[in-house]
Each structure stands twice: as C-alpha cells, then as structure tokens.
C-alpha cells in the first residue's frame, strides 16, 4: 500500500505541534529552560513542515530553500536544548550555520542535482543529531543502562539519515525515484523520532527532578553538608565498601563550644554564619574521600576511611583552623573553638557504634576544658546499654537541655 506524502506531512505537523505545546507547558510548569527550548524546536518544526507542504511547490526554488532551512534551525534548537539542559549556554552560530550551508548549497548547485542536495540536507541533520547525542552522553552521573536511550534515539536518527549518503550511489536513478522514496521514508522516521525524543526528554527531566528532591531530602540547607539522614545513608555505603577491602574506619564528632552564647549575644543570623564557616573549615581540612554532615544544631560528624591515628591528625587540623578563623561580630571578636571526639573501629564496624564511642570521647573533651580533641579508649560493648545509660543521664539532668546543647551553653 502506497503512503501519500501529503498525509504523512499532515501527521508529522500535528504530532510535532502537539508535542511542542506539551513541552512548552511542562517547561513553564517546572521552570525548566531546556524544556522550553525543546518545545520551541518542535513548534518551529511543525511550522516548517506545514509551510513546506502548503507553499513549497507554489513559490519556486528559492522560497522552498528558505522554508526547508526553518526545519534545520529547529533541528539545531534540539541540540541547543541538550546544551541548556546540561547548564551550557546556547550556541547562536550553531543555530544558523546548518541553515546557511543548506541555502548556499541550494543556490550554488545545479537544480537537477536533487539527490546530491538531499544528501547535503541529510548530512546537516546527521551532524546536529550527533551533536545532540554527544551532549546527552556527557551526562556521566547516570549509569550506562539509564542513559543509553538518550543516546541511541538521536544516534539512530542520524544513522537513518546517513543512508542516502551510504547507499546513494546504489539506489540513485535518473528519474528521481530514489529521492521521492526517501522523502516518504524520512517523513515516517521523523514522526517516530519526534515521539522517541520526547520520551527521552521526559526521562531525563524526571530523573533530574527526582535527584534534586533526593538531594534536598539529604542535604542541610544552611551549610550544604549532608543532614543526619544523608550522612547515615552515605556512611553505610562507605563502611560497606571499606569492609570489603578490610580497611578500618573512624568517626569524628564536632561540637562548637559555647554556641548558645553566640546566638544569645549576636543573634541567630550571626550564629548561622558561624555554622556555615565551620562547615567550610571541615570541608577544606578533610579529604575528598571523607564524608561530613551536620547531624543536629551545632553538632557535626565526619566518617573517615582511615585508622584512628590518622583521624586524630585530621581532627586537630580542623580544630586549629576553626580556632584561627578570627570571626568578628558587632566589632567584637568571637571565640570560635570546637571540641572533637574521635573513635575508630575495624572493618565493618557499625556507624552507630562508632558514633556512640566518639560521643563519649566528645563528652570527655567538653569536661576537660573544651577546644580539644579526645579519642575514645574503646568501642561500647553494648550499644543498647549505652543508649539506656545516656537516656537515664539525660532524664536525671537538672537543666531542661540534654546532650551536647547543655554542655555548650
């Protein structure tokens, strides 16, 4: 059964316009510039197909060239949308270059060289499709099995359009039947590519939104460090990895000294600045392989894949750097000191056990005068027993505060 080219063009126009409107809508809803770029590209593509279908045969060769160049600009916009999606700026020269080459070749070549012009147009689209696939491939945060559709769809589009170049000498004939058949094939492929690309776009955008929500749920908004939940999850993975290699791990617990008095004297805004300053010191003085997080109030923690001796050295670096910060609030110098408890254990030691031991060492540092690093003598024999003892001590304390907040006040 023969397929009418007019019918295919109408279907392609309607599909592109519908998908473009949908992308523009969701781009506005999600405030995602890349979606708006993709949507605009589809709308422009629909306009190009409609104008080509209605006016190409009526206004001569020059008008036909300019109408088809609109479609190439739309293809370039798809590539630019992929760039914007990855935080890059749009390439303005790249938007127009393909259309300029197409118009120039159409004016310079013999009008009878229809197959050659078709090949040039296909090659331009192939280049844009390759550039799009390259941009999407550069999203290395996803594993290969998650990102392959984002690459294979534009790659297959480019391959299909390469067939006129690869097979042109075999299939080309004198009466132009090859060109006519290829226009039909291209119309069908264009619809499939449009639908497949939108599937890929929504897959990428939804994954990014989920990742953003996950980061928000595991990140402390004030300091940018992991929050308690994020720190626990990341630490469990690190401990498991180090256990497979039979390497020890160590935990540091930091408590800013007299933090309550900073809030009382200078206000919570200045207290927040001190917290952010300390978070920066921790990140700066620990290694990239170390995990750090804010686990509550003025209390921070870090997990280091090393022995307790190395952890003590790292803790001392943090203590000295924070003490030398030289913070001034309302023309008054602020003592920025921190007490640190350190605990280490063999490969596979549970995070809660390490935190309990480091917590005991932290209390020792507080009672010994603050602004010091203390190491835990041993891990608790029973974590549950340790928790019961801490709960009983908190209940018996006369002050309404419990834990480290009472010691830091």
Overall geometry? elongated
| Percentage of residues assigned to helices | 55-70%
Contiguous low-pLDDT stretches (5 residues minimum) are 140-145, 399-409
Which range does the strand content fall in?
5-15%
Average pLDDT = 79
Number of strands: 7
Q: Quickly count the domains.
A: 2
How are helices and strands ordered from N to C?
Answer: HHHHHHHHEHHEEHEEEHEHH
For the record, the CATH class of the largest domain is: Mainly Alpha
Taking Cα atoms only, what radius of gyration do you get, to the nearest Å? 32 Å
Count of DSSP-assigned helices: 14
CA-CA gap between termini: 85 Å
Main beta sheet: strand number and arrangement? Answer: 5 strands, mixed
Strand order of the largest sheet: 2-3-1-6-7
Oligomer: single chain
CATH architecture name of the largest domain? Up-down Bundle
Overview of this structure, please?
- The structure is a single chain.
- With 409 residues, the protein is an alpha+beta fold.
- The chain has two domains: 5-218, Up-down Bundle (Rhopdopsin 7-helix transmembrane proteins); 228-408, Reverse transcriptase/Diguanylate cyclase domain (Alpha-Beta Plaits), CATH 3.30.70.
- 69% of the residues lie in helices and 9% in strands.
- The chain has a five-stranded mixed sheet, sandwiched between helices.
- Helix 2 packs antiparallel against helix 3.
- The protein is elongated and about 95 Å long.
- It starts with a helix and ends with a helix.
- 37% of the residues are buried.
- Residues 140-145 and 399-409 have low confidence and may be disordered.
